[in-house]
Amino acid sequence: MMLDPTAEQVLALGRSAGGRPFEDGTAEEARAAYDAAFPALQGPLEAVSETRELRIEGPGGPIPLRLHRGHGAPAEAAPAILYCHGGGWVIGGLDSHDDICRWFANLAKAVVVCPDYRLAPEHPFPAGLEDCLATLRALAERPAAFGIDAARIAVAGDSAGGNLAAVLALHGRDGRAPHVAVQLLIYPNTDAGQTADSYRRFADGFGLTARTMRWFRDQYVRSAADIEDWRVSPLRAASLAGSPPAYLALAGCDILHDEGEAYAERLHAEGVSTQIGRRAGQIHGYVSAGRFVPAARETVAEAVEAWRRFDGR
């Protein structure tokens, strides 16, 4: 498969920057390296009508949240997006995905809330998931405090954040969490078994490597038994029927491509309204490279349009 020229540019920048793979150091060193690198790739931080730094109580202590109200979003009863940032459950935070959250807020004329959930390995599964669930409950139970409509809460996320968003959607379906209106998943991790063929095709040389993804997973799970748990591997859930409508963005040259495709196929086969946005020549993480990749913001716009179609508004 031919790489998109913008993906080639991002990969070349990574090679020129040097640095060792995350898995060759500690989690703290990986976070420091990622925090030093992401600003060079991040898209423009668009102005929004309001930004608030908040905290809610969570199962492991206070959870910091960042709220963006997009231009055109109503002051009350606005549609809302709970955005779970990516980073392999180990790295990333409110700043690393701030451009994406701002795009969603403005394009959807919505309120976007991103939780700074606990990270592994200090806080392995299910700590980060529990923090995202606590955020969803806070939005649904106190909508007036956020100026949102509790009936129009979407979940969204990229990579490991897409994994968390998909699991939140299943919790909502089962009544274990508040109802979710739609799920917007950007190259989500859906099967921690890591046996899909795309792990072989794109194992090395396409940004996120199979070796790094294995390290991320092993930081997150407590034991091999967690890999079988649908809350880690939503593709392994007994049923996906009754899930909220889903948009999935897939990168063609991504080790996670095949499990994302399989998740979309299962959703569709089990009666869930599903739309796939395919970027054939793109690599994992391209939506976090908006400075160089126009498809980054375009993918967010496509996700918002899918939500509007699902919503019928």
From TrEMBL:
Keywords: Hydrolase. Pfam families: Abhydrolase_3. The active site is at S159. InterPro entries: AB_hydrolase_3, AB_hydrolase_fold, GDXG_lipolytic_enzyme, Lipase_GDXG_put_SER_AS. Residues 81-287 form the Alpha/beta hydrolase fold-3 domain. Gene3D superfamilies: alpha/beta hydrolase. One of its GO terms (molecular function) is hydrolase activity. The keyword Transcription does not apply. It comes from the Bacteria. Belongs to the 'GDXG' lipolytic enzyme family. This is Alpha/beta hydrolase. It comes from Plantimonas leprariae. The lineage of its organism: Bacteria, Pseudomonadati, Pseudomonadota, Alphaproteobacteria, Hyphomicrobiales.
